[in-house]
Write a structure and sequence with these properties.
Strand order of the largest sheet: 7-8-9-4-10-11-13-12
Number of helices: 12
Radius of gyration: 23 Å
CATH topology of the domain at 40-154 and 237-388: Rossmann fold
Bound molecules: adenosine-5'-diphosphate, iron/sulfur cluster, magnesium ion
Number of strands: 13
Order of helices and strands: HEEEEHEEHEHHHHHEHEHEEHHEE
Shape: globular
CATH superfamily of the domain at 40-154 and 237-388: P-loop containing nucleotide triphosphate hydrolases
Largest sheet: 8 strands, mixed
Helix content: 25-40%
Structural class: alpha/beta
């Protein structure tokens, strides 16, 4: 018998070596698959509905770390209808950014890999098949060269911190023109300059002819985020992914940027996937809401369904945890007890059960199935199994 009992939270040298070996094997296999030459048919598929701009089905994204496999996005499915704002909410580390990076094919490889599922993007480039079904791209299978044609043009992204996303050594005008040239290589210098001025005007920047000569450090945080939005809109995208676009800004600027985002969404007819941990922002902006917890979707529905009739104990908990002016000044702010589970080697069961006050016998079993409450509202929780006559 060894002198010291084994700590279950620590890996032995042998276990660690086994994990590294199997990770290397898996990463090599996935990277090799990505480099294989494929025909367009391989990454072309059919949309479930032509009214959606994006359909995510059973998406699974992992990070192969030396401590084990982190399942950051664990078989999630949701749709982004055309011309709408969809809010993706959940606490820090629940997989919101990894979902958006998977859509953009920007997950940090080789450790980060999309290992399963489909991301169907409804592009105008492809028509319909013989049966009249709308054809689309499956981003999970697209080679990088083909992805570059739609990234930044058809799908663009606004990041949280504009100072780290903008290049500090180029003027803002140059950075807008660069995106314009990328998708319009034949354009003249005058056309590109005019486009930069038009884009800055669209996002409400005063004196755009002067500001295009400014470097990012010469602008305020709010103006920098406006420039980021201008860059994101330059390719006339059909889908804009905004990952916590206002978290780095102060409150007054936050509302201006959100208003701008809503206006440009209406004007350009694009869909927006708004990622945030702020329920207030979602309530104000979104048409549909997807609630994530530990890499899984726990509830999704229209903004009215999620706010007026939240069903999952986690959704109810985060709404209760929101500070309100009406609450008693002496009462303590509610917080959901416990912590998010360790994302390594997570089991196939409800991941909220360690923190849930409504946990019952059935919660010890497999991960709950999707329970459809209405056509648009679904929840993943054993509490509602009986309502469907299931045991
Ligand atoms: N490069 C990485 N390597 C390992 N794990 C990562 C990496 N990026 C993200 N993760 C893990 O993926 C999970 C989801 O992260 P993320 O999507 O960034 O969360 P958020 O919902 O706050 O945006 C977290 O548990 C995080 O630790
Ligand atoms: S499945 Fe059970 S533990 Fe999980 S949220 Fe529902 S009631 Fe709580
Ligand atoms: Mg994030």
């Amino acid at each position: 018998m060894s002198k010291h009992p084994k700590n279950p939270n620590l890996l032995t040298f042998k276990e660690s070596r086994e994990i590294i070996k199997s990770n290397l094997r898996e990463m090599k296999r996935l990277e090799k698959k990505k480099r294989e030459k494929v025909t367009p048919e391989y990454f072309t598929t059919k949309m479930k509905s032509a009214d959606n701009i994006l359909e995510i089905e059973d998406l699974e994204t992992c990070f192969f770390t030396d401590n084990g496999v982190v399942r950051s996005v664990n078989k999630i499915s949701f749709d982004v209808p055309k011309d709408t704002i969809i809010g993706l909410v959940g606490e820090s580390g629940c997989g919101k950014s990894v979902t958006s990076l998977s859509i953009m094919q920007l997950v940090q490889a080789p450790q980060g890999q999309v290992v399963g599922g489909e991301i169907r993007f409804n592009s105008d480039d492809l028509g319909t098949d013989e049966s009249g079904n709308k054809l689309c791209y499956d981003i999970t299978k697209m080679p990088t060269a083909d992805m570059c044609r739609i990234r930044g043009k058809d799908i663009s992204m606004i990041f949280q911190e504009p100072m780290t996303s903008l290049n500090p050594v180029f003027t803002v005008g140059y950075q807008i023109e660069e995106v314009f040239y990328l998708h319009n290589p034949e354009a003249t210098k005058e056309e590109a300059r005019q486009k930069a001025i038009d884009m800055l005007t669209l996002v409400g920047i005063p004196m755009p002819e002067t500001i295009i000569e400014y470097y990012p450090h010469q602008l305020s945080g709010g103006m920098r985020q406006r420039v980021m939005i201008a860059i994101a809109l330059t390719g006339n995208p059909k889908l804009i992914i905004a990952d916590e676009p206002t978290t780095a800004l102060d409150v007054t600027i936050q509302s201006q940027i959100l208003k701008l985002l809503k206006n440009v969404q209406k004007e350009c007819g694009a869909s927006v996937m708004l990622i945030t941990h702020d329920l207030g922002v979602v309530a104000e902006m979104a048409d549909y809401v997807v609630v994530m917890y530990a890499g899984k979707i726990v509830e999704k529905g229209t903004v009215y369904e999620i706010f007026d009739n939240p069903m999952h104990p986690y959704t109810i908990g985060i709404q209760k945890a929101k500070p309100s002016l009406a609450s008693d000044a002496d009462s303590e702010l509610y917080s959901i007890p416990g912590n998010v589970p360790n994302p390594i080697n997570i089991p196939d069961e409800c991941l909220f059960k360690g923190r849930c006050s409504r946990r019952c016998g059935k919660c010890e079993g497999k991960y709950p199935k999707e329970i459809k409450i209405t056509e648009t509202h679904s929840v993943f929780c054993h509490l509602y199994d009986e309502e469907r006559g299931e045991e």
